[in-house]
Amino acid sequence: MFCNFYILLICIFEFHIIQSFASESQQNDSKKQLLSGIDFTDKNLKRYNQMGFIPASEFYMGSDAFITNDGENPKRKVYLDGYWADKFEVSNLEFAAFVQDSRYKTEAETFNTSFVLSMLLSKQVSTEITQAVAGALWWLPVNESNWFQPEGPGSNVINRLDHPVVHVSWNDATKFCKWAGKRLPTEAEWEKAARGKLENRLYPWGNKFQPHEQHYANTWQGKFPDENTAEDGYVSTSPVDSYHPNKYGLHNTVGNVWEWVNDWFSKQHSPEPLENPTGPASGEVKVKKGGSFMCNKLFVVWVLFRISAIVTVALHEARIVRIARHPTLDFAVWLMRYLII
């Protein structure tokens, strides 16, 4: 009996190994097929890399209003040197160029699982899922979901190359930045760029969510998480050049996708004026900003809102920033943005 049981365990173990190799092989084939179908001379690769200059100045970061318990307060004066910010989120086209050149494998691919909003899944994929995230039952772990298969097997981004890349962890984001010769922004750099020259405002365009009844960002309409009525034109992500830019020329600084920054997360902030702050020296989770298409005017599409995320969690997307030339320095900054999808 013991020997038979032992043999059975070996058979089960070998079966899972075979399954794992088969799954990885299928993913690699899907990725190769996608990359082979992309024109990497596409003029949008250059267009999406346009940047807007954020001049050196002081601004007020955070708020004294107690909006959430995630550390937006207190309002504090911050001085930043000048820098350049990408006008667009990192697109699937750009991330594909990075993968094509570097052969990089994201953490979602390595883990073979990421999390997807339930309403976006096909019936076939949904029937294979037996788990969910406690307290957030709309997040479902989907095998083989990643940047090139956002909704798992059977999905792809070939018709979404102008949409933001998703299922990218903080670690993936930093690898992409290094490849581009840049880096993630600090939280202060992100917030100043996102505000678009406006002080004491909730949104990059002012305090009214829909001026003149127009949509200024990709957010949720309808009953979450079961129905998005898409009154803004999109059920899920939108192209990176959607909507009006802010006064720095940046598109989609709130809504559409969450955005990674370089800072470790902390709720404790000094009220004293700061110069080029970089956040805590260490921590357990990183800050993400800006909200996503799953947020609405009552929930986190404010320029000051922040939440935390583990560096290996592949739920997000990115934008890029670059620091301006200094008398003694010449380096680059990336402002990247990521979506929970």
Please, could you describe this protein's structure?
The chain has 341 residues and is an alpha+beta fold. The protein is built from seven helices and eleven strands. It has helices spanning 2-36, 44-47, 92-102, 107-111, 123-126, 170-180, 187-195; strands spanning 51-54, 57-61, 76-80, 83-89, 113-117, 139-143, 259-264, 274-275, 286-289, 306-309, 319-323. Strands 1-4-11 form a three-stranded antiparallel beta sheet. The N and C termini lie far apart (47 Å). Residues 11-19 and 324-341 have low confidence and may be disordered.
Kindly name the structural category. alpha+beta
Major sheet description: 3 strands, antiparallel
User: Helix-strand pattern, N to C?
Assistant: HHEEEEHHEHEHHEEEEE
What is the alpha-carbon Rg in Å?
21 Å
Strand content: 15-25%
Roughly what is the average pLDDT, rounded to an integer? 84
What spatial order of strands do you see in the largest sheet?
1-4-11
- Total strands: the figure is 11
Compute the number of helices: 7
N-to-C CA distance: 47 Å
Keywords for this entry:
341 residues, alpha+beta, three-stranded antiparallel β-sheet, three-stranded mixed β-sheet, 23% helix, disordered C terminus
Topology:
Layout: H1 2-36, H2 44-47, E1 51-54, E2 57-61, E3 76-80, E4 83-89, H3 92-102, H4 107-111, E5 113-117, H5 123-126, E6 139-143, H6 170-180, H7 187-195, E7 259-264, E8 274-275, E9 286-289, E10 306-309, E11 319-323
Parallel strand pairs: 3-8
Antiparallel strand pairs: 1-4, 2-3, 4-11, 5-6, 7-9, 9-10
